[in-house]
Amino acid sequence: MENGKLTHPFKPIIFEDSEILILGTFPSIKSFENEFYYSHPQNQFWKILSIIFNENEPKSIEEKINFLKKHKIALWDTICECERSKGNSRDDNLTNIKPCPLESLLKKYQNIKKVAVTSRLGEKVLKKHFKNSPFSILNSPIYLPSPSPLNARMKLNQKAEIWKELLQLM
User: Fold this and answer.
1) Domain carrying residue 17
2) What span, in angstroms and rounded, lies between the C-alpha atoms of 38 and 148?
3) DSSP letter string over 44-74?
4) Residue 170, pLDDT score
5) First vs last Cα of the chain: how many Å apart?
6) What amino acid positions are annotated as catalytic residues?
7) What is the pLDDT of residue 73?
8) What is the mean pLDDT of each successive set of 10 residues along the chain, which is 170 residues long?
């Protein structure tokens, strides 16, 4: 994958009855290659959700989409255009950021009750670009500990417990 200016390659995954919108930052190099969200084999996103809902981890893209639909979860990212300065997927390599049109999404899908972010950069993007948004859930997103393999401070089960609590999926 080239460095330089990049455009988000995926549409949001969202359904009429989605209630939670989980936002990442921007697709990793592996996600670009595999053409789907959270596709790095060490990323814990799908593992965390499978623990929370006590289900088998979805493997195929179709299984992942069905899993999200079943649990009324929508998925997208905070950044739709940026430059990646180095040949890795770290958020601190992203510059010249243009946010995704999240207000348009929330206007169309009005069942979304919670917005959560899986990175500090995603949180910063929301607070900077949507601080005056009429959608208050964009101004104060729920911060979920990153599922990235770079976030090794917490064990998988700890992350799952925190996600479950913050998303109030008891």
Assistant:
1) 4-166
2) 9
3) -HHHHHHHHTT-PPP-SHHHHHHHHHHTTEE
4) 40
5) 40
6) 43
7) 97
8) 74 96 87 86 93 96 97 94 73 79 96 93 90 88 87 86 83
Cα separation, 15 vs 74, whole angstroms: 7
Residue whose pair of structure tokens reads 């770290």 in the numeric block: 90
State the burial class of residue 143 (Cβ atoms within 10 Å of its Cβ: 0-12, 13-18, 19+). Answer: middle
Per-residue model confidence (pLDDT) at position 84 = 77
SS3 120: helix
Return the DSSP state at 146: P
Q: What type of residue sits at position 17?
A: D
The CATH number assigned to the domain holding 121 equals 3.40.470.10
Q: How many domains is the chain built from?
A: 1
Answer yes or no: are the C-beta atoms of 82 and 97 closer than 8 Å: yes
